[in-house]
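Appendix B, Record 12. Input sequence as logged:
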Amino acid sequence: MSRKQALAILTSLVLLYGHTPAAQANTPSLSLNGFGTLGVVHSSEDQADFVSSLFTPRGAGRTSDWSAEVDSRLGLQLTANLTPRLTSVVQVVTEQQYDGQFRPAIEWANINFDVTPDLSLRAGRVVLPVFMNSEYRKVGYATPWIRPPLEVYRSIPVSSVDGLDVSYRSHIASLTNTLRATYGQSDSSFPYIDATLSRARAEARAREGLTISNVVEQGNASIFAAYSHYRLTIEEFNPMFDAFRVFGPQGDAIADRYNIDGKTFEVISLGARYDPGRWFVMGEWTQNESRSFLAHSRGWYISSGYRYGAFTPYVAVARQRIHSNTSTPGLAQPGSEPLDMLLNALLQRQPQQNSASLGVRWDFSRNMALKAQFDHADHKATSSGYLVNSQPGFEPGGSVNLFSLALDFVF
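Logged structural output:
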């Protein structure tokens, strides 16, 4: 669904139901809600930029000493209750895009039908439920941190897909189990440095995506598990691997091993949360596997906090590691040196880091919270972590300190 189509749906819903009395039973009603984050980030590394998403080209550090582009966003959600069983949702989020510009994009645009009180069907652009906080990963007010731990959430940056979603909720004694199956596809643009060293646009196309997730809840505790399987294609890398194929069977073997042309990706995620009110503890673990230059990786985090009235201090520790080779001898033939170097640079660029975060949240007003957070990240070996736009003076394998402030709100 294009942005114009979704905005047309939103406008039509306003015209049709915008003046319908919501208090009348079984009559259509319309509600408009929103959320946002106004944030700034400072990085101790001035030879590269810290970014929180693969889809953004610049952030804090080299480009800006204090960057408001890393975490700031605004979202609007229009919900139309068409019948007691039929609901339509359109959510538009404005945040930094692949070209550095802030533009609105359609996050959700779907219609939901409740077959029974426990069985629901959705079609359109729906949430990708691959993580425990997927439903509100972009709603800063709904999480204790300024941004979800990147060691887990950045591994799958896509947050929605175009397709179908089936959700079934069952009750066993005091347990509530919610099983969800989502099938669909997504297209995502991200910044890319081409062969001329110019910044260009690349497109990641995920197809045949199937995600099965399950949440078990009892009282203040919940356990989450998900499995996701899809095929990924990024055509912008094809010319490099086509150049490998010129070298014959050995080049074909390297291209088949590392290219991203319909390659299968598998993701397993596990999470748990306990929140009795005064304090909370939660954690997630994820594993990504693919036969491409995007390495096999594992990431996890554990976070906890305690609520003192309007204040919630919190801590988090996280880690991401690569569990596949981060270098290859390549072709090792006369004339293949540039290709070998480029492939090794792609392999070594994969994020590997340990991080520790300390922050505090202040709910100073209804539906508004102010947060301050300090992060320290140690990069392993040749990794640059989540830094981009590195300059000649930048040295991988070091560490970076981040200080962030954010105002989160909902309405």
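The two ends are 26 Å apart (CA to CA).
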